[in-house]
Amino acid sequence: MTLRLRPDVSTADTDYGTVLLDGVGGRYWQLNGSASVALRVLLEGGTAEQAAQRLTATYDVDEARAREDVERLRVRLLDAKLALR
Fold first, then answer.
1. Averaged over 15-22, what is the pLDDT?
2. Residue 40 above 70 pLDDT?
């Protein structure tokens, strides 16, 4: 499942990952490097499986863990109302 951020959510890449700013609620969210990689794939229209594959190619993580991490990120972004399906 691809993902898109709400129009009022801004992103900024940092040396440590990505920061998301909720323009409505005023809250900041800091994503680490691996979450940033997964988010980028999802926002570019990739699937959760493709994001997990990118994680395994970039980091020393097994595929099952990468899939879990991508799904957890997706759920948290949706629960926080930062992202739309």
1. 96
2. yes
